[in-house]
Structure formats: C-alpha cells, structure tokens
Amino acid sequence: MDITISEHEDERRTRAVAVLRTDARSPLRGEGEARRRPSDTEVPEIGDELATARALADLTYKLMDVTVGDIEQFTGRPMHLPC
Question: Would the CA dihedral through 18, 20, 21, 25 be positive or negative?
C-alpha cells in the first residue's frame, strides 16, 4: 500500500491518496481531504492525519464492494456485508 499526502497551503487543504496493489487485481485507490478554516490553528499533522483517515475509509468501502462482488461471483447469490 502506498499513501501520498499533499499539502496545499494556499488553499488551506491537505489531500491524501491511498493505493492498494495486489497481484490478484488492478490497484484500488481511496482519496481523502481535510480543510482548515481560517480561524483554525495551523497544525499540518492534523490535516495529514484526517486526510489519510478519510482516504483509508474510502479505500475500505471500495475494497468491501470488490469483496462482495467476488463472493457473489462464487456463490451466485446477492450478498451484503455489514460495515
């Protein structure tokens, strides 16, 4: 897994991209963003952490969807995994 974090000071935002690579399928990508209000104290680590958490959450849901599709393919029945 690779996580890339980019800080955009002029826009007061941080963006994170999490990419999961496996030999079994094409890469899955999750994205997250954090924005800082003008009144917020500037602490870059918080933006990095929040954007990364959101990217990982996005990736989690995409991976769950892929998993459901794989299970449905093998069982031939509709499937729902609770989060």
Answer: negative
